[in-house]
Amino acid sequence: MESPQPGSRGAEALKHIAPGSSISVAYHPLFGPYDDLLLLELDEKLLPDVLHERVVLRGQPDEDAVLCTPSKTYAMKFVGTSNSVLLVPPANHSEFCENPQKNDSNNEEEKVVAPVIKVVFGNMELIEAAPRLDKLKSFLSEKPYNFDEYDVGNVEDNQESRIGLYNWNDLVGNIQASDEELRSGLQALSAVEINGYWRLVDGSYMDMILGMLLKNSVLNDWSLNALNEDEVVSTLESDGFPGVLARHCLNVYGTKVNESMPGYVWKLDEKRVCIHFAKEILKGGKRKLERFMDEWRQKVPDGMQPTFDLVEGEVLTERVGVETWIRPFSVASLPSTPADRFSILFRERPKWEWKDLQPYIRDLKVPGLSSEGLLLKYTRRTQPSPDAEPVFSAR
Amino acid sequence: MEIRVRCNCGEGSCEEWGIVELQGVVEPQPGFHDSLPNLHIGTLCRPSSQELYTFTVGYHELTGSKVPLKKPMVVLKKVKHPDGESGCKVELQVVGVIRHKILFKNRPKALISKPQITSRERQKPIMLGSSPSNQSA
């Protein structure tokens, strides 16, 4: 079995050369440049995804293409070689299946031949990369859902009303991320699918619907730890909010307590609710710390205890004389590529202590680079004395 | 834009392609540039049961070996499907997989006269760093 049949051709012949024998390497009858044939090097573990058609290339013509598996994103890099790489297809390959040369090569007598279809000058390589999600935020910010839209009602699906709206297919066609990464990106942005389009909901609308939910919970004596979904949604609907947004409100500010019962039960998440109100207060600009904390305690629902560590990554503190002021500076508003992120951070503040910096970089994920690696690459670390806190500045 | 990667073969039955890699460029003599199809490039010989090969191209002989690729490669073919609205829909079709190559990484040796197949026994004992430890034992 190992040795090729006399007269056999192709990659099989190349693979099974019997010891002590030789084969001829020749140009294929259909030899050519074949620019449409590419070699892609990949990890053995990615091979099943490729063979089962679970990978896709994503990107606009002006972007470098990325390859996405269901869960990960890989940058594609062309690696050239100065060697000559002679590519030999299998003999029975449908496309390059030449008619057996009848009599014109008779003098070669059934010689075993490995035919070279193309000389390749390099191959594509994959490098695991972070999903490119910044575009997602800017897309969805084009037309956030707000009050006006609900008043208009469900407008007809015409071209004009579709401007600034993106459905799932629009997103996967434009965003260089895997399906899974795109979904978690949508979740991180608190986006919601309304009438087939993925939307951000205007902040003041969310404030209003959350306020109404809390008011209803007082009126109806609901526990914020056990909110019945059907009850909450139908009450909010009778208050004039669409059901999809009532459910979205539970999703954004709560967690499901039980998954199994018909009619889900939700628990409001203290942290998320508190952060929401902190942001609402700071919409008016910076505040003195004491005043902010007073206002905050008043605004949150009874039973919730806002503590300052909840607003890590949302506010910056500044000392002005004996006073401490805070002002809004949300990590969610910063770019997700490390270089851009650090450049904005150091423009904001030339020097950062670790405890202040950490909330603004802990979400940065670069495959193959640890958070220490990130700091080494983008910051200069100084430590005035061995027991002093290290300070980070721009490189 | 999305380009789907298609595969008709399914895992396990993906056809294996082969690669012969050598340094530099294979340059046909000027007279043959227009008649490359079926032109003989060289003779690939496996002298023994080891995965060692010689490749004789014209008056040059290369010595190399079959090496497994550190990572497999897939051969992709760009396919354009005519698409109703916007011209063409591009897909990539997996047409094969490559796991080994026969690599000739040394410079060619000129063949003055036909070299006899040398016995490889002489090369075996030469192993890096082996002699000092033999002595000490």
TrEMBL record, chain A:
This is Sister chromatid cohesion protein DCC1. PANTHER family: SISTER CHROMATID COHESION PROTEIN DCC1 (PTHR13395:SF6), SISTER CHROMATID COHESION PROTEIN DCC1-RELATED (PTHR13395). Pfam families: Dcc1 (PF09724). Belongs to the DCC1 family. Keywords: DNA replication. GO terms for cellular component: chromatin; chromosome, centromeric region; Ctf18 RFC-like complex. GO terms for biological process: DNA replication; maintenance of mitotic sister chromatid cohesion. InterPro entries: Dcc1. The keyword DNA damage does not apply.
Automatic annotation (TrEMBL), chain B:
It comes from the Eukaryota. InterPro entries: Ctf8. GO terms for cellular component: Ctf18 RFC-like complex. Residues 114-137 are annotated as: Disordered. One of its GO terms (biological process) is mitotic sister chromatid cohesion. It comes from Sphenostylis stenocarpa. This is Chromosome transmission fidelity protein 8 homolog. The lineage of its organism: Eukaryota, Viridiplantae, Streptophyta, Embryophyta, Tracheophyta.
